[in-house]
């Protein structure tokens, strides 16, 4: 997931990331400041920090840390479900550009373990192949975990759909019985009315 969004001073922006359990999540971000004179976003925003907060599906804070204007954060999920990742600038009125518009570039990678550059440049071919194989095996485990999580979600959705369909069926039966009862009651009432008025 790679995106950018605009934010104001101390304005908190959050995204929701659906993550399987026991999965590494790595986030890279960069903050740019709007320059009024140049009428464009500058490449960096020195002196500005970003609070990064990650909340689990059970509303427990998994990560809460202050970073610089550009950085990398990571966490490992222990629960599967929707994790809320929030970013908020720590700008104050004492900072020269406080109150100005910020652009935050955010790149989130779920379940990725990056290969070290030294591995790519390794002279020992056997070690390089071994490490690349380990990396591939890790990716296979992650894909398998993702598939299991999707299966769990699909099964939960199917159960919810079946319960909803069952409730709709019973509600339809109850409505039919109520209508039939009202119809019978009206027929009996009309018959009694006609008999009492000696119309029948």
What this model shows, in words?
With 200 residues, this protein is an alpha+beta fold. The chain has a domain at 2-113: Sandwich (Jelly Rolls), CATH 2.60.120.680. It is 38% helix and 33% strand. It has helices at 117-120, 125-196, and strands spanning 2-7, 12-19, 24-35, 40-41, 50-55, 61-67, 70-76, 81-89, 102-110. Strands 1, 3, 4, 7 and 9 form a five-stranded antiparallel beta sheet that branches. The chain has a four-stranded antiparallel beta sheet with strand order 2-8-5-6, with no helix packed on it. The longest helix has 72 residues, at 125-196. The termini are far apart. The model is unreliable at 93-98 (pLDDT under 50). It is found in: Endoplasmic reticulum membrane; Membrane. InterPro entries: Emp24-like (IPR015720), GOLD_dom (IPR009038). Residues 12-110 form the GOLD domain.
Task: Describe this protein with a few key phrases.
five-stranded antiparallel sheet; 200 residues; elongated; alpha+beta; Jelly Rolls; 38% helix
Low-confidence stretches: 93-98
The total strand number stands at 9
> What does the largest sheet look like?
5 strands, antiparallel
**How many helix segments?**
2
Gross morphology is elongated
Classify the beta-strand content into a percent band.
25-35%
Q: What is the top-level CATH class of the domain at 2-113? A: Mainly Beta
Radius of gyration: 30 Å
Structural class: alpha+beta
Protein name: TMD11 protein
Organism: Lophotis ruficrista
Domain GOLD: 12-110
Keywords: Endoplasmic reticulum, Membrane, Signal, Transmembrane, Transmembrane helix
């Amino acid at each position: 997931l790679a995106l950018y969004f605009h934010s104001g001073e101390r304005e908190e922006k959050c995204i929701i990331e659906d993550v399987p359990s026991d999965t590494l999540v790595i986030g890279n971000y960069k903050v740019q400041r709007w320059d009024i004179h140049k009428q464009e976003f500058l490449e960096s925003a020195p002196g500005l920090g970003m609070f990064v907060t990650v909340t689990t599906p059970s509303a427990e804070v998994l990560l809460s840390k202050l970073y610089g204007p550009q950085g990398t954060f990571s966490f490992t999920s222990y629960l599967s479900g929707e994790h809320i990742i929030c970013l908020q600038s720590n700008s104050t009125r004492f900072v020269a550009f406080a109150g100005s518009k910020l652009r935050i570039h955010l790149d989130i990678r779920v379940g990725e373990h990056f290969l070290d550059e030294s591995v790519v440049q390794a002279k020992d071919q056997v070690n390089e192949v071994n490490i690349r194989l380990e990396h591939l095996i890790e990716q296979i485990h992650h894909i398998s975990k993702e598939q299991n999580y999707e299966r769990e979600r699909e099964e939960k959705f199917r159960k919810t759909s079946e319960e909803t369909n069952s409730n709709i069926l019973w509600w339809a039966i109850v409505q039919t019985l109520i209508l039939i009862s009202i119809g019978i009651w009206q027929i009996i009432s009309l018959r009694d009315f006609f008999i009492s008025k000696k119309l029948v």
